[in-house]
Amino acid sequence: MALSVQPSSSPLLTSEADEKYANVKWEELGFALIPTDYMYVAKCKQGESFSTGEIIPYGDISISPCSGILNYGQGLFEGLKAYRAKNGCITPFRPNQNALRMQTGADRLCMTSPSEEQFVEAVKQTVLANKKWVPPSGKGALYIRPLLIGTGAVLGVASAPEYTFLIYVSPVGNYHAASSGLNLKVDHTYRRAHTGGTGSVKSCSNYSPVVKSLLEAKSSGFSDILFLDAATGRNIEEISTCNIFIVKGNIVSTPPTSGTILPGITRKSISELGRDIGYQVQERDVSVDELLEAEEVFCTGTAMVVKAVETVTFHNKKKKYRTGKEALSTKLHLMLTNIQMGIVEDKKGWMVEIDGYVPGTKKEISKT
Amino acid sequence: MALSVQPSSSPLLTSEADEKYANVKWEELGFALIPTDYMYVAKCKQGESFSTGEIIPYGDISISPCSGILNYGQGLFEGLKAYRAKNGCITPFRPNQNALRMQTGADRLCMTSPSEEQFVEAVKQTVLANKKWVPPSGKGALYIRPLLIGTGAVLGVASAPEYTFLIYVSPVGNYHAASSGLNLKVDHTYRRAHTGGTGSVKSCSNYSPVVKSLLEAKSSGFSDILFLDAATGRNIEEISTCNIFIVKGNIVSTPPTSGTILPGITRKSISELGRDIGYQVQERDVSVDELLEAEEVFCTGTAMVVKAVETVTFHNKKKKYRTGKEALSTKLHLMLTNIQMGIVEDKKGWMVEIDGYVPGTKKEISKT
Ligand SMILES: Cc1ncc(COP(=O)(O)O)c(C=O)c1O
Ligand SMILES: Cc1ncc(COP(=O)(O)O)c(C=O)c1O
Question: N6-(pyridoxal phosphate)lysine: which positions carry it (chains A, B) (predicted)?
Answer without folding.
Answer: 202
